[in-house]
Amino acid sequence: MGRPVFLGKAYINWCEKCNVPLIGDSCAVHGEESVFKLNITPPGDLRFAFEKDIEFIRSVFREHYGVDLGELFEGKIVLLNKTPGEDDSYEIILDGYVFGWVRFDPLELRWKPGLKVEGAIALWKRFGKSMRKWIIVDEGAIDPILSGSNLLPVGIIEAEQSIRRNDDVILVSESGEVIATGIAKKDYEALASKERGTGVKVRRQKSVNYREGRKATMEDVLRANSIELEKKVMEARRFMRKVATRYSDLPVAVAFSGGKDSLAVLGLALEEFGENFTVFFNNTGIEFPETLEYVKELRRELEPKGIKFIVADAGDAFWRALHVFSPPGRDYRWCCKVTKLGPITMAIKENYPKGVLMFVGQRKYESIKRFKQPRVWKNPWVPNERGASPIFHWRALEVWLYIFSRNLKYNPLYADRLDRIGCFLCPSASLAEIYTLKEEKPELWARWENELKVWGKRFGMPDEWITYGFWRWKKLSRGEKAIARELGIEVPEERSWEPVKYSIVKNEDGFAVRFNTIVNLKRIGEVAPILGEVEEGENYIRAGKVTFRPDGAYTSDFNEGVQAYYLVKRAYECVGCGVCVGKCPENALSIDPKSRKIVVNGELCTHCRECMDVCPLLKIKNPEEGSQL
User: Are 534 and 541 in contact (CB under 8 A)?
Assistant: First the structure.
């Protein structure tokens, strides 16, 4: 669970005179003379803190330390760096140093703050003993602490009374110098009574780089980074130009999601191509309302300028498919295939039958999988699409600098503490993001929670299945199982939902496939050509080597028996996602407008069964029977 650990080092440059972060090695105002390097936790995908982020951080620190950070942050550029952990965790950076962090505790379901020594110095200088969670240590304990030892209660002169076990605390010398931070291993009473054992597990910090910088504005940041930012922009535009020239036979489009990365790519496309491209938006049907309104506004602004908009609309596909698939999971991402891949494939096939060059806002800092992905790729599931990412090497900080420098209108959800814009019920969301959704958009969470309650009862799950986000896995991960054990609750390790069940029985003539339902020959007839040439008779349909009757399917080949099950499953459970429609090389498949299920044109179908290889029902629901999409 949480973000994966990235090996290696990450850093951000900082201009001491401007007191702003830099994306390059020099400042456009002061050159290299006042630039220093600040080490941060990898992968280092920093972003600016918005006003609500600052308010949130202040509230978390106020609850723990009993003081308000407002004065410290006022007029300063504050950065947030998302770091690996059990759940969401952010380093807080200002004045050219890491102040501390906030992290979401997946057991206590709340945010907790922590301080680096620099942050502790900043707080102690302003608040002293009026703040909470401090410990005054004996002078004789200082050298051992600085040498890597933990603090024993006998080395404590005085401690603040609100300290509880596992609290983040600061250690101060008798002369008032902050020497370290750490985690209390005992309550105040045990510390004060000199109880034996470790009192504070001291956090190791190699160097301390506290400084107080001048106030700065976003204009100062843009000015200091103006040269390096334009270098980034020029490189991205050259890349777009080069790729467009290489694939000059393909029309150019921008995949726009409503998020910051796709907005940056849209801005670059406007600069490079002017009006000669299309904006492609995928409405999954589970977007935030604010995103839909934002896209409408953008469309109203750009269409009069000659920019064409295409919307791949999934409609209510997710909610219909939910009854077939059950809730999606991180290891069970049928939702992306049904609401994204299907509609996009069909829209591209309809609008770009000969193909399209799609510029996408993917960045290598987003995940290990994307880090390993090439900058230009061929999408195996969308045959007509060639993808390319102009901002592949950009960090979030550079994306935001570009957006601010061009005064591009961004999705208002970013100002509501939503770090990632997409489907509001995404199973890849962290627990922190889910609880932010509950807080900021309670009506959206309520709708999804009601669905989860129905499924929780169906699966026999405890209430904690929803409360602690266990629903985000089809089969619990090792981390989730550990959390369940620590909470002392029993959550079934794996959930399964199969409306159509089958068994294959050997008989004298071969094999009989039995289903938990009557075989509807009329419906089977609409998809039967997939298996082979079709022959229809009284009370039967023969497709290739399989004969379907109301009581089951019959064949001499076991493997064809499995294919018969696949066909019945697709016939009955099809949600009309369209993935197979886009994949069919003969255009033999279509979605019936009434039933919203696939039908096959027997005159065009060549029985190649390529549609079997991409159907989410088979490749997501039954991964043991085929590779995942």
Answer: yes
pLDDT tens, position by position, 196-225: 999 999 999 989 999 999 999 999 999 999
Q: What are 269's two structure tokens?
A: 């496309």
Q: Give residue-wise pLDDT tens across range 15-27.
A: 999 999 999 999 9
Residue among 443, 466, 467 nearest 456 (CA) = 466
Please give the sequence-ordered ranges of beta strands (E in DSSP) within 260-393, or none if there are none.
278-283, 308-313, 356-359, 376-378, 385-388
Q: Which residues contact 92 (CB under 8 A, 6 or more apart)?
A: 49, 57, 78, 79, 80, 98, 99, 100, 101, 102, 119
pLDDT above 60: residue 5: no
* Residue spans of alpha helices (H) in 407-468: 431-440, 442-459, 464-467
Q: Which two tokens stand for residue 458?
A: 């169906």
DSSP string, 205-264: -S------PPP--HHHHHHHHHHHHHHHHHHHHHHHHHHHHHTTTS-EEEEE-SSHHHHH
Give the integer Cα–Cα distance in Å for 202 and 170.
Answer: 9
398 CB burial (10 A radius; 0-12, 13-18, 19+) = buried
Residue 385: strand pairing partners: 356
Q: Which helix (H) or strand (E) holds 20?
A: strand 20-22
Sheet holding 376-378, edge to edge: 308-313, 278-283, 252-256, 356-359, 385-388, 376-378
How many CB atoms sit inside 10 A of residue 556's CB? 12
Dihedral sign from CA coordinates of 389, 391, 393, 395: negative
What sign does the CA torsion over 512, 515, 518, 520 have?
negative
Q: In angstroms, rounded to a whole number, what is the distance separating the alpha carbons of residues 232 and 18?
A: 21
Contacts of 593 (CB under 8 A, 6+ apart): none
* Residue recorded with tokens 């505790």: 105
**In 352-395, where does DSSP find H-type helix?**
368-371
Q: Is the separation of the CB atoms in 460 and 453 below 8 Å? A: no
Q: What pTM does this model have?
A: 0.91
